[in-house]
Write a structure and sequence with these properties.
241 residues, two-stranded antiparallel ribbon, 8 helices, 3-stranded antiparallel β-sheet, mainly alpha, 51% helix, globular
């Protein structure tokens, strides 16, 4: 998770220097370093490599297999937060591929596999289920993975939900996959409405209890309840992010 965030942030800096600051020679140094860092993951040489899980059909971190802790790496081994995790890698890959199209030749399939794991567009894929994370009925993703919960599935970070769709849209644009780009746009359009109705609460909202609206945000949205907190603590800055 944190490695993906770091790659995404560094990729954004490289893009900023290259395009907005118009300093491609300076950006080229950072781009080279970014490629080296990204290759550690695309060649599966990280501390906890990814493996394919045949039981549920997906890519998972070996972290929990290695240390026996189900919530290590934020529960990735148990499919928790996959769209959050992969979104950062996909975003970084989109920037690298935009700045260096030749890089796509060796990395396109790996990044596409991340997309298939979290947002596979077809039920006929024998390796990954259809739309693992995004719920087209509810209009947003769920981030609970395989963990049991008395209040059903939940999602805390609406921003990372949207970021995954944005990253997928960018990646589709970079590789010329119009269908993927369109799916990203559609997910973003749906989430724009859903977040306003269920996550980011304006006065007059009719979907959440009136007494809850002063919180302005849901914190964690469950299937059975809303809870003005986060998994990291009750600080107001955590909840409003």
């Amino acid at each position: 998770y944190f490695n993906g965030k770091a790659l995404s942030k560094f990729a954004t800096l490289v893009y900023t220097v290259h395009v907005l600051c118009n300093q491609p020679n300076t950006a080229r140094i950072g781009l080279g370093q970014l490629k080296v860092a990204f290759a550690k993951f695309s060649t599966n040489q990280q501390l906890h490599p990814l493996v394919y899980d045949r039981a549920w059909g997906g890519l998972v971190s070996t972290s929990a297999y290695d240390n026996g802790n189900p919530i290590s790496d934020f529960g990735n081994t148990f499919y928790n937060d996959h769209h959050f995790h992969w979104g950062y890698f996909i975003h970084a890959a989109a920037i690298i591929g935009h700045l260096d199209p030749h890089w796509l030749l060796l990395n396109k399939d790996w990044v596409n596999t991340l997309v298939r794991d979290a947002a596979n567009p077809t039920a006929s894929d024998p390796y990954f289920p259809f739309s693992r994370m995004f719920d087209w009925f509810h209009g947003h993703s769920w981030a609970k993975g395989l963990f049991e919960s008395a209040d059903g599935k939940d999602e805390e970070s609406s921003s990372e939900d949207a970021f995954f769709a944005y990253a997928m849209k960018l990646w589709g644009s970079v590789i010329g996959d119009e269908s993927m780009e369109a799916r990203g746009n559609l997910m973003l359009a749906i989430m724009k409405r859903t977040f306003r109705d269920y996550f980011l609460l304006e006065r007059g909202n009719r979907n959440q209890p009136p007494l809850f609206l002063d919180n302005m945000v849901t914190g964690i949205l469950f299937e059975n309840k809303v809870d003005a907190t986060t998994y990291f603590g009750n600080n107001l800055e955590y909840i409003h992010g």
